Amino acid sequence: MTETFTIKGLRFDETYAPADSTRLTTNFANLARGERRQENLANALKMIDNRFNDLARWDNPKGDRYGVELDIISVEMDVDGSGETFPAIEILKPTILDRKTGARIDGLVGNNFSSYVRDYDFSVRLPEHNKGRDGFSVPEDFGELHGRIFKDFVASEAFRTHFHKPPVICLSVSDNKTYQRTANSHPVLGVEYTPNESSLTERYFQKMGLQVRYFMPPRSVAPLAFFFFGDLLNDYSNLELIGTISTMEAFQKIYRPEIYNANSVAGESYRPSLKHQDYSLTRVTYDREERSRLAIEQGKYAEEHFIKPRRAMLDAWSAKVAV
């Protein structure tokens, strides 16, 4: 099996409409539908710009020096050289506009992370594996195919041609773990938290080659999970990190306001909860129930169009990559 990755970019702005191959559960796609789609998009983008300038305060007296442009990066995979592709990965890439100097600064690719195969793993395979069982368990090879596809993409010539640094993915904290504040602090990432135990999501991303650390940026109310290669605190510039924080914190305030738009700040020992009632809503509408339903539908799509018809080929390729 010879895999070939094709990378396509699409601007995420007020006129954005999801492509046919886009997972509709994706943060940005969910906002771009319905009667209020343009208002949703405009408000979300303004939240990102405002937060970026809030964190990049130096030489920025009016708080309007920077703007953020976002491109949706879609990665298609040709698994057998036939020319037939499957939408493997979708991530976000910020570009930072410095209005004072006119410079355009590359942000870090990653941010949001979307994958049909991940939907299959969590919304189809995992429930089927646990059907009729006493207690919860995880298949022994859970996440291995997905992890190898991701690592192969990051090591590919296509990735090196388009991006100058490894990806950083930023997600919400888990609502079934407790996080303890540490003495470690970074001027942009903020104060570090450590979890009381590892989560299934952490182990899944480890199979993608990614480490995780948890930081609560200045003037945030809850920590974010940063998944990365290398050295998160020293491999990236302040502006690159701010691009990721401002983008993903805005999305999390929209999607998980109980955690990220709470009216109180996480304490030294912090257990997030989606049942928390003391929070504020953003001016962006979002249907969380629809998103959960679509995850199952899209997992089944991956099963029918990628996993089942190519199972023998994918198993052989995965075994070869592992060696």
Q: Which SSEs are present, and which pair or pack?
A:
Blueprint: E1 4-12, H1 27-31, H2 37-55, E2 66-78, E3 86-98, E4 104-106, E5 110-114, H3 116-130, H4 144-154, H5 157-162, E6 168-172, E7 179-186, E8 190-195, H6 200-206, E9 211-216, E10 224-228, H7 238-255, H8 257-260, E11 269-270, H9 288-307, H10 311-322
Parallel strand pairs: 5-6
Antiparallel strand pairs: 1-2, 2-3, 3-4, 3-5, 6-10, 7-8, 7-11, 8-9, 9-10
Helix pairs in contact: 2-7, 3-9, 4-10
Descriptive notes:
This protein has helices at 27-31, 37-55, 116-130, 144-154, 157-162, 200-206, 238-255, 257-260, 288-307, 311-322, and strands spanning 4-12, 66-78, 86-98, 104-106, 110-114, 168-172, 179-186, 190-195, 211-216, 224-228, 269-270. It has one domain (4-322). Helix content is 36%, strand content 23%. A hairpin with a 5-residue loop joins β3 and β4 (104-106). It has 323 residues and is α+β, with helices and mostly antiparallel strands. The two termini are 15 Å apart.
